[in-house]
Each structure stands twice: as structure tokens, then as C-alpha cells.
Amino acid sequence: MDKKMIDIIVPVFNEADNISLFRTAIEKTFAPLKYNYTIYFIDDGSIDESLKIIKDFSMSYNNIKYITFSRNFGKDAAIQAGLKYSKGDACIMIDADLQHPVELIPEMIHYWENGYDTIYAFRDKANEHVSFAHQMSASFFYKTLILLSDIEIENGATDYRLTDRKVIDVLNNFSENDPYFRGLTKWIGFKQKAIPYTPNKRLHGTTKYSKRALLKLALRGITSFSVKPLNIATYLGFTFSILSLLYIPYILYSLWFGHPISGWASVIATVVFFGGLQLMILGIIGLYLGKLFMNSKHRPHFIISEENAS
Ligand code: UDP
Ligand code: MG
Q1: pTM exceeds 0.90
Q2: How confident is the model over 195-229, as pLDDT tens digits?
């Protein structure tokens, strides 16, 4: 019987120093396993040597494929492209920078063999490689995400996962403009298993996510999964209307006893507070409107300039 095929989907953005190490690590991992594998490197508009290295590898090894984007479209687009080309019985989505330990792959495959459809890794406990501020903001982000989205995403959920063919087929049928895979795979359901891990230190290069990009990712995560933030306006509106009623007795009391109602400071504070609140809520509505707008254009999610994966 033919061995089953596992596709490795690797988004690459300026990872020249990591690609070769990554390939060797995968080769070593699969050597004792009874599976064939194909690596799909999706070059997300790298401006370093990454593409050249990947192409050279694809000449020497016929289980290495490449897909190149016309520019940088972001990691999720890269994963999406990889999924479109994947033909295997399962696929593993993993970062190129070796922060996702390949040692986890046999364990993921073990669970897959035992009937799990999505096996995903999440960062375990406080790990020493990221700054305290980063950890706090990540933990805050996941808490907010869970609160606002009705799906339980573990604090530390990553894009490191193995999915069965049936999950890939479902994902490929999504026409969402801005897929947020961490949430989507969870949302899809089937039999899921979470396994904890401690991320390795990045060997070469730096993280591609600035603080601003992380904030953008957070907002995307929330807005692609729920409309709860839109309800906030309603709740706040009710609350403040009711609170403002409490002010009436004070006004009547002052009128009755002839007290002047004091308050330049309080008026300004109130105006500024509500001004801010209204802008914030307008902003939230704007985020959703922006999403609708972008989706309504039906633009392709990525543009491929070259590939040898079909
Ligand atoms: N990546 C990508 N496109 C981007 C940013 C990142 O394909 O616009 C890839 C990157 O090459 C790596 C993975 O996504 O393989 C994770 O990126 P990174 O290590 O910078 O993120 P972090 O581990 O810091 O969250
Ligand atoms: Mg990384």
C-alpha cells in the first residue's frame, strides 16, 4: 500500500537563514515515520534570498514545492495559498523560523492516526523567550477574544497545527476575504486536540510582527468572529441614560434650595468622556463597515507570480 502523504505548509517572509535548517529538521523528523511528505514553501514577497534558496531546493528535491506571491500579502494569505495547492491526506502548517518545534510532529501524527482531525499546538506557560509586555498583551488579547467571540481560543494558540483532508476541504471552500485561521479551524469543529509546547528562540532574523501589526491582528481576530462589540454601544447607551437620571434629584434639590449648580470642570469632563466614547463606538462600527467594504470587492486574496506546485 502506498504511504500516506502529509503536506507541510510553510509561509516564508525573509527567512533566508532559516530555510535550509528548517528543511533538514523536517527531513530528520520524517525519516523514521511511515509517511511521505511534501513541503510547500509559500514565499510571501520576500526581499531577501529566500526565494532563490527555495527554488534551488525544489530543483534538488522533488518533494519541495514553491509558490511565490507578487508582493507581501500576509501570513494567512500564504497559508491559504498553501492549502489550495495541498493534495495530501493531511497537512501541517508551521512557521519557517523553527520556533515551532518539529519534535511535535510525531505526536501530532499520532493523534491524527487516532482519529483527531485538527491537532493544534499552543504555547505553554510563561515562556522565557518573549518580553513580559508581549506576554501580558497576548494574554489580554486572548481573554478579550474569548469574551467577544463565543469561541474558546486558548491563550497562546498558534498557527502550528495538523489538519486532516476533510478540514482542508472545508477551509478551501471558504471565500472569506480575511481568513483568521486560528479562529476558523476552531470554529469549524470536528475532533480537535490541543497540545502544549514551549516555543524555541528565533534562530535567525527578527519577528515580522511589529507592535502595530499585532494590534491590527488582534482587531482582525475580534472583528472576524463576532459582532458583540457592536452591542457594546447599546449597553453603554442604556447604562449612561439610566445613570444620568440619577442627576435629576440633585438638580431639583439645588433648585429648591437655591444652590447654584457648580461645574465647569464636571461639564468639560463629561463632554470629553462622551466625545471619546462616541468616537470609539463609531470606530468599532467603522471596522465592521470596512470589512464589509473590502469583502464586497471580491478581490483575490493573493496574487501568485510563480509556482511549481500544481
Ligand atoms: N510570515 C509571512 N508573511 C508575513 C509575516 C510573516 O509569511 O507577512 C511568516 C514568517 O516567515 C514565519 C511565520 O510567518 O514563517 C511567522 O512569522 P514570525 O516568526 O515573524 O511571527 P512570530 O513568530 O513572531 O509570531
Ligand atoms: Mg516566529
Answers
A1: no
A2: 888 777 777 777 766 667 767 777 777 777 777 77
For a ligand 1 pocket test, name from 13, 79, 131, 181 the mutation site with the most ligand atoms within 8 angstroms of its C-beta.
13
Report, at the CATH architecture level, how domain 4-208+300-307 is classified: Alpha-Beta Complex (3.90)
Lowest mean pLDDT among 31-40, 79-88, 272-281: 272-281
10 Å Cβ neighbour count for 50?
25
Neighbouring-strand partners of residue 7:
38, 91
Contact present, 48 and 18 (Cβ < 8 Å): no
Q: Render pLDDT for 25-48 as a digit per residue (tens, 0 to 9).
A: 999 998 888 899 999 999 998 998
Q: Is 90 helix (H, G, I), strand (E, B) or coil?
A: strand
**Counting ligands in written order, which one lies closest to the CA of residue 69?**
1
Q: Which of 8, 72, 95, 135 to mutate to test the pocket of ligand 1 (most atoms within 8 A of CB)?
A: 95
209 CB within 6 A, ligand 1: yes
The answer to whether the beta carbons of residues 79 and 47 sit under 8 Å apart is: no
Q: Is 99 in the pocket of ligand 1 (CB under 6 A)?
A: yes
